[in-house]
Design a protein that fits this description.
Blueprint lengths: L9 H10 L14 H14 L3 H4 L8 H8 L15 H11 L2 H14 L4 H4 L1 H6 L4 H10 L5 H29 L4 E5 L10 H7 L4 E2 L4 E2 L7 E3 L7 E8 L5 H14 L5 E8 L3 E3 L7 H7 L8 H10 L7 E6 L8 H13 L3 E8 L9 H9 L3 E5 L1 H12 L2
Parallel strand pairs: 5-6, 5-8, 8-9, 9-10
Antiparallel strand pairs: 1-4, 2-3, 6-7
Helix pairs in contact: 2-5, 9-10, 10-12, 10-13, 10-17, 12-17, 14-15
InterPro entries: LolB, Uncharacterised_CoxE, VWF_A, vWFA_dom_sf
Organism: Micromonospora polyrhachis
Protein name: Mg-chelatase subunit ChlD
Length: about 400
């Protein structure tokens, strides 16, 4: 009596899933297990539509050829002839893959292959787990949604934003626990230990043989919120499509900074027009649902508007969040930034404000702004909050 069909070894099976059906003979020519066949079908449903792979001129032989043929657009998977819908696919990947893989697959679906029904189909939206990738997709495609779908999408936005706010608020509270002053304190709290002064004052007590420093006299610094004077933080956020992640985190950051002692927050989004969203800062969900991603970019105009909001130049931080691809007057932008720096304003040029802080930007213009005194780089929202707290506490 014949036994069940043999399956390839786990390592070979993983390679078979990576390479596709064309690699079947190279991986032992055994049928996939039921779960592996389902995984293959789910991967084929998504990555089988890659036109770039089908258009390549396949040359050579061996593994390279197997990889290109196996991942080409005619990949069909192995779970049967029925046509898989987006809802079926989401159900399958939720069953078959770990959370990190699911988020990657969903990200590729909406960002790489423009499968809009992931966020515009009400049945799909009811089943999908909220995450930042889908939030960005909602912001890009909300103009395609009917009122009923838009309401479901708003619930997704609310869930993701609530989680982001909760996470960042902890970092903001820690940063603003109280600004350190330069004077000593008679209250001995561990968080206020002046480590540098303590080490310097007790160096004579260092025991070489033990390699230990004995502290006889610790020093502490005072925290005095009454010393905090008002600072303005003006966030100017490019709402071009590539900046979706930074728009989201700018809204969340502004909401967390709002109402803190010593801080007055402004939030302005721009493309070729300018929208001052400061009055909506306390409701980041509503704010994000009003953002219109895409369009051109006039950075000079936005910075000029930001300059008009300044009350006290020496107590103002202008954070320009953009990819520096200027569609307006670059020379005017450089002049305005130079003027802001010369009058004592702190200018941050952030090519990314998100959890990854991985910038993609036009380096030529960014360098020009750095040359006139702007600080150019990328930050996570927590790093920006810490930067603001340190400025406010001086």
């Amino acid at each position: 009596m014949a036994g069940p069909p043999a399956h390839p070894e786990p390592t070979l099976e993983r390679w078979r899933l990576v390479l596709g059906p064309a690699a079947q003979s190279c991986c032992g020519d055994h049928p996939l297990s039921a779960d592996a066949a389902a995984q293959d079908a789910a991967l084929g449903w998504l990555y089988g539509r890659d036109k770039e792979l089908t258009s390549r001129d396949i040359r050579g032989s061996g593994v390279r050829r197997v990889v290109e043929e196996g991942r080409a657009g005619d990949r069909q998977g192995g779970s049967g002839a029925s046509v898989m819908t987006t809802v079926d696919w989401l159900d399958e990947i939720s069953r078959l893959f770990p959370k990190e893989t699911i988020e990657r697959l969903e990200r590729d679906a909406v960002e790489r292959y423009d499968i809009h029904d992931v966020v515009t189909n009400p049945v799909v939206l009811e089943r999908i787990a909220p995450n930042p990738t889908l939030l960005k997709a909602v912001l890009r495609t909300k103009y395609l949604m009917s009122p009923d779908v838009l309401q479901l999408a708003r619930q997704l936005v609310d869930a993701v934003v609530r989680e982001l706010v909760q996470r960042l608020a902890t970092e903001v509270r820690r940063s603003f626990a109280g600004a350190r002053s330069r004077r000593s304190s008679r209250f001995k709290l561990a968080r206020d230990l002046d480590l540098r002064r303590t080490v310097r004052a007790n160096l004579a007590n260092y025991q070489t043989e033990e390699r230990k420093l004995y502290v006889h006299t610790p020093y502490f610094v005072a925290r005095d919120e009454r010393r905090l004077r008002q600072w303005q933080v003006i966030l100017l956020v490019d709402q071009s499509g590539s900046m979706a992640g930074s728009v989201i985190h700018s809204a969340v950051t502004a909401a967390c900074l709002w109402g803190l002692p010593g801080v007055k927050v402004h939030l302005v989004t721009f493309d070729t027009t300018i929208v001052d969203l400061t009055e909506q800062v306390q409701d980041p969900v509503e704010l994000l649902m009003r953002v219109q991603l895409g369009g051109g970019t006039d950075i000079a105009r936005a910075v000029g508007y930001g300059a008009s909001l300044i009350d006290n130049p020496r107590r103002t931080i202008v954070a320009l969040i953009t990819d520096f691809f200027e569609g307006g007057d670059a020379a005017a932008l450089v002049r305005t930034v130079r003027h802001l720096v010369e009058q004592g304003t702190t200018v941050l040029g952030l090519a990314a404000l998100d959890e990854e802080a991985e910038p993609a930007y036009e380096r030529g213009l960014a360098q020009q702004l750095a040359d006139v005194g702007a600080h150019i780089g990328a930050m996570t929202p927590g790093e920006l909050a810490t930067f603001v707290a340190e400025k406010v506490g001086r």
